[in-house]
# Entry
Amino acid sequence: MVATVLVADDDPGVRYALKRLLDASGDYEVIEADGCEAALELAASQKPDVVVTEAAMPKMTAIEYIKALRWACPRAGIVALSAGGMHQSPEFATGLASTAGADEVLRKPARNEPLIEAIDRLLH
# Structure
């Protein structure tokens, strides 16, 4: 069975790279969101199995955003990615994502193998 993965990042280059990686495996159906609002709408309507998302997106704090994702699709696994932000270190941003309820937290740029392993852990 093919798992649905929502990829959410405000950087189109990151979304493209993640979609290519996941599409190449053949194990996932990938849907994309370009920001937290679109991600929350898709999470609620599509009920993905896993959400792979930038933790620090514009318009919401990492804590608000991850908690809202958890509410929108409570059964989905959440992999939060972060390189930090304008005023945050990567460690601080990933700590916030973990505190907010992300199941897996990876620093950006996430290497392919650890990301796929994190997704697979959440699916099994």
Notes: Residues 62-83+96-124 form one domain.
